[in-house]
C-alpha cells in the first residue's frame, strides 16, 4: 500500500495537506463516539443518530457528510450506513476491530503531535506521563493493549504465513503484550509450544485473553524485564514492534539477548515499521516520529541495522520480506549446532 499526499506543488494542495489533521480528527471522533458500532446493521437518519449518540445536532450533517466523503459512511435516501471497511474494522466487538489503535491515537498521540516542535527542540518525549505510568494503571494498560491488539490482529495471519513453522517446536514472543500474536501463531500451528515474555503487570490480561481464546496452557507467560531478567529458550524468538521503542544501543542489546535465546536451527524474527536507508515512506516516518514523541530514545531504523548486526551475532542467513502493508520482517537463522 502506498501513502498518497496531495499535490504540494500547488497552494491548494499545500493547504489541503495542512488540514489533513481535520480528516484524521473526524475519524478519531467517530470512533470515540462509537458511531460505527451504532450504525452496524441498523442504518439511521440524522435525527436518530443524534439521539442515539446524545449529540446536539449542530454540525452533525457536515460531520456525517465528511465521513461519507472520506469513504467511511454511505448514504442512501436519508439514511446513513457504514461503508464496508468501517463496518468490518470499526465496529466494536468484531474480531477484526482496529479501533483500539485509533482510540489510543486519539487519547495520546494526537495531543503529543501538538508538541512536535518541543520534541524537535529538546529531543524529549511529549506524551503525558511515561510507560511506567501506563503499566501501573490497569485502565491505561488496557487502552495500550487495545492499541497493540489492533496491530497484531492484522499482522498475526501475515506472520503465520511468512515463516516455515514445520520443524520448529516452540515460539517465544518477547514483548508479546497479552499474547495476541502468540495466540495467532499457536492457533494456526497447534504443535508449537507458545511463550510470551512481558512485564509482570501484563499477566492478568494475558491469562484472560488465553482463556477467551481457548489457549490456556498452550501459551505460557513469563513476567520480567527484558533488560535485566533471563529469557526462556525457544526455536523461534520474535521481537515485534519492540526494538523501535529503544535507542540504538538498547536495540543491539535486545537483539543479542533474543538471538542467544534461539535454539540451534531456529531463528530470531524481528518485525517493525523499518525505514529504507533514504526513507520516503510517509506512514513509517510518521510512526518513527510517534516514537520520538512517546519514548526516550526510540525510532524506526533501517533493515541494514539488523542485517549488519546479524553478521556480528553469527546468524547463518538473513531473510527480509515485507509483512502486511507497512512492516518489514527480518528472519535471522541460527546454525543447527
Ligand atoms: C510496542 S509493544 C509491542 C507489542 C507486540 N509485540 C506487537 O507486535 O505489537 C512493546 C511491548 O514491550 C513490553 N515491554 C516494554 N518494556 C519492557 C521490559 N522492560 N521488559 C519486558 N517487556 C517490556 C510492553 O509491555 C509491550 O507489550
UniProtKB/TrEMBL annotation:
<dbReference type="InterPro" id="IPR036390">
    <property type="entry name" value="WH_DNA-bd_sf"/>
</dbReference>
<feature type="active site" description="Proton acceptor">
    <location>
        <position position="244"/>
    </location>
</feature>
<dbReference type="GO" id="GO:0032259">
    <property type="term" value="P:methylation"/>
</dbReference>
<dbReference type="Pfam" id="PF00891">
    <property type="entry name" value="Methyltransf_2"/>
</dbReference>
<dbReference type="Pfam" id="PF08100">
    <property type="entry name" value="Dimerisation"/>
</dbReference>
<feature type="domain" description="O-methyltransferase C-terminal">
    <location>
        <begin position="113"/>
        <end position="304"/>
    </location>
</feature>
<keyword id="KW-0949">S-adenosyl-L-methionine</keyword>
<dbReference type="InterPro" id="IPR001077">
    <property type="entry name" value="COMT_C"/>
</dbReference>
<keyword id="KW-0808">Transferase</keyword>
<feature type="domain" description="O-methyltransferase dimerisation">
    <location>
        <begin position="19"/>
        <end position="91"/>
    </location>
</feature>
<dbReference type="InterPro" id="IPR036388">
    <property type="entry name" value="WH-like_DNA-bd_sf"/>
</dbReference>
<protein>
    <submittedName>
        <fullName>Dimerisation domain-containing protein</fullName>
    </submittedName>
</protein>
<dbReference type="GO" id="GO:0046983">
    <property type="term" value="F:protein dimerization activity"/>
</dbReference>
<dbReference type="InterPro" id="IPR012967">
    <property type="entry name" value="COMT_dimerisation"/>
</dbReference>
<dbReference type="InterPro" id="IPR029063">
    <property type="entry name" value="SAM-dependent_MTases_sf"/>
</dbReference>
<dbReference type="InterPro" id="IPR016461">
    <property type="entry name" value="COMT-like"/>
</dbReference>
<dbReference type="GO" id="GO:0008171">
    <property type="term" value="F:O-methyltransferase activity"/>
</dbReference>
<keyword id="KW-0489">Methyltransferase</keyword>
